[in-house]
Amino acid sequence: MNRTEPDQCQTCGKTSTVEHLICHCRKFADIRTKLNIEDNLEHALSPQPINIQKIFNYLKLTKLYQLI
Ligand SMILES: [Zn+2]
After folding, report:
1. CA 22 to ligand 1 center in whole angstroms
2. pLDDT tens digits, 26-65
3. What is the distance between the alpha carbons of residues 8 and 5, in angstroms, rounded to a whole number?
4. Three-state DSSP class for residue 28
5. Which of 1, 17, 39, 47 is the most buried (most CB within 10 A)?
6. Whether pTM exceeds 0.70
């Protein structure tokens, strides 16, 4: 019997991956729009200072940094 369930996003019911939380989760849609976060993880995390600043702010506003 497999008792391990993947973590699920409580808002969307989808698997709660980093990509989901950063790019797709409806819970953070407003914050994502405000910060203009790309909906593609590769783009969102591309190593340019502007992106790093955006992701940093995003993690701060969503309090995701507490989970990482
Ligand atoms: Zn979600």
Report:
1. 9
2. 999 999 999 999 989 999 988 899 999 999 999 999 998 8
3. 8
4. helix
5. 17
6. yes
Q: For residue 21, give both structure tokens.
A: 């939380």
Ligand 1 midpoint to CA 9 (Å): 5
Residue written as token pair 């709660």:
16
| C-alpha span between 37 and 20 (Å, rounded) | 13
* Dihedral of alpha carbons 5, 11, 13, 18, sign: negative
Who surrounds ion ligand 1 at CB < 5 A?
9, 11-12, 25
Nearest to 60 by CA among 41, 37, 40, 39: 37
Map tokens 């409806």 to a residue: 26
Give the residues across from 41 on adjacent strands: none
C-alpha to C-alpha distance for 36 and 25, rounded to whole angstroms: 14
